[in-house]
Design a protein that fits this description.
Blueprint: E1 3-9, E2 13-20, E3 25-28, E4 40-41, E5 43-47, E6 53-55, H1 56-64, E7 68-72, H2 74-80, E8 83-86, E9 89-92, H3 93-112, E10 117-124, H4 129-141, E11 149-153, H5 154-163, E12 173-180, E13 183-192, E14 198-207, H6 219-237, E15 242-248, H7 259-265, E16 270-273, H8 277-290, E17 298-301, E18 308-316, E19 319-326, E20 337-342, E21 348-355, E22 362-367, E23 380-387, E24 392-401, E25 412-418
Parallel strand pairs: 1-10, 10-11, 12-15, 14-17, 15-16
Antiparallel strand pairs: 1-2, 2-3, 2-4, 5-6, 5-7, 8-9, 12-13, 13-14, 18-19, 18-21, 20-23, 21-22, 23-24, 24-25
């Protein structure tokens, strides 16, 4: 089996975890020098006059020495789809990200002396559909097979990470604070018991108490930051039964400045710090994806996962059967589905939206009046369901005609709606 990788891809720093068969779990990729903590600056530098790209600290150093041109904030560039002109050549956002990922995945290949990548999962702070499309294209340019690549929210990485810790750490709610230059995020995860499979519910809340990490460069700034986070802890944790709390992000690379904040967190709770939480969670998903069948015993409902099943009824072999178009718990970016039908005295398409573990069913109706008038059972349609997030759904009905007798009209009926 080749390498199984989890990558936390962020604008400031990226991190890599590798699945270790010996440890049966994640192993952070730690490099030498200033990146010995495994935090690799998400920075790219093209060496002047050569078709060679550098990343991380080396990219900064060579650019400062005037030996190349540096580009940073690569995730933001990809999200905005901007470009950079270097030595008279224009590089698209996809080109730049592909160059960065190519150099990034070289690192574990060199350390572990293995060229093949069996499975890889990227953890991202936000799952924007355009960002994911461009990231997919960048991975294609890197030679990564699409079937081996997964994209996850930080929330899902957090849930997988916690669920693979000893159960005594999470009998109740588990929380996390992630402090980076991008902001301050608060996470919660809990198990909804009494269901089969059991449900992991996790969520992320961006907090207004975020501050620039430059604040931590002076004693007065450290005191102010400690005061801000202490008030934040009071607000987020009051009246909650929290078993464990995790601290991550470059803002918590040292917590010497956060004495009052830590005192509040440690009241009858276990507190852990570390910089590889999201990368470790991602590699656990990558490992599970590489197995013939998932061994993960929970249904994860979180940012990036569908909370509802979408289906419709159709006649098959004379019986009215329910056809699942999208299953609750699926990754929305991977949940595209399509099916073809012959209309039998049907003028309205009715989709059922069923939130997981509830008896509530919502019906979404889509009028087919725009389709050409034809005799019954002579119209074939394709129903396509796609997603722009876990709650934003697009349904398209495409007229496929009926052979040479009734050619396809090219008509597409579309409806966008929200689901819970």
């Amino acid at each position: 089996m080749g390498l199984i990788l989890g990558i936390d891809l962020c604008d400031s720093f990226s991190q890599i975890s590798v699945y270790s068969p010996e440890k049966r779990g994640p192993e952070p990729l730690l490099l030498g020098g200033s990146e010995s903590n495994g935090m690799i600056s998400t920075t790219l530098c093209k060496v002047r006059g050569a078709d060679r790209w550098l990343i991380g600290t080396e990219a900064y150093q060579r650019a400062l020495m005037g030996e190349g041109t540096m580009v940073d904030k690569l995730v933001k560039i990809l999200l905005r789809n901007t470009s950079a002109t270097i030595e008279g050549v224009q590089y698209s956002a996809v080109d730049l990200m592909a160059a960065f990922i190519t150099q990034l995945i070289r690192l574990p290949k060199i350390v572990y002396k293995e060229e093949e990548i069996e499975s890889i999962a990227f953890g991202l702070r936000q799952l924007d559909p355009d960002l994911l499309d461009r990231l997919t294209e960048a991975c294609d340019k890197c030679g990564l097979e699409r079937s081996r690549v997964r994209f996850l929210s930080h929330t899902e990485c957090f849930a997988y990470y916690v669920a693979n810790q000893p159960k005594e750490l999470w009998p109740n709610t588990v929380s996390a604070f992630d402090l980076t230059d991008a902001g301050l995020d608060y996470f919660e995860m809990k198990v909804v018991r009494g269901r089969r499979p059991q449900i992991l519910q996790a969520n992320r809340e961006p907090l207004d108490e975020a501050f620039d990490l430059d604040l931590l460069e002076t004693p007065m700034g450290e005191h102010m930051a400690d005061t801000i986070l202490s008030a934040c802890a009071d607000r987020m944790l009051q009246k909650k039964l929290v078993s464990s709390i995790f601290l991550t992000g470059e803002g918590f690379s040292s917590v010497d400045w956060a004495k009052e904040f830590l005192r509040k967190l440690c009241m009858k709770r276990k507190v852990f710090g570390g910089q590889h939480l999201f990368a470790d969670g991602a590699v656990l998903v990558a490992y599970d994806s590489a197995l013939p069948e998932s061994r993960f015993p929970y249904l994860c409902l979180c940012e990036g996962r569908l909370a509802s099943t979408i289906s419709l009824f159709a006649l098959k072999d004379g019986r009215n059967e329910q056809l699942i178009l999208a299953q609750a718990g699926s990754n929305w970016y991977e949940a595209k589905a399509s099916a073809e039908f012959i209309l039998d005295d049907v003028h309205t398409l009715e989709l059922m939206v069923t939130p997981f573990a509830t008896q509530r069913v919502e019906t979404i109706s889509l009028s087919l009046a725009e389709l050409p008038a034809r005799p019954n059972k002579t119209t074939r349609v394709e129903v396509i369901v796609s997603f722009a997030s876990e709650s934003r759904v697009t349904v398209r009905v495409v007229d496929k005609g009926f052979g040479d007798l009734f050619p396809a009209s090219g008509i597409v009926i579309r409806k966008d709606f929200l689901i819970s």
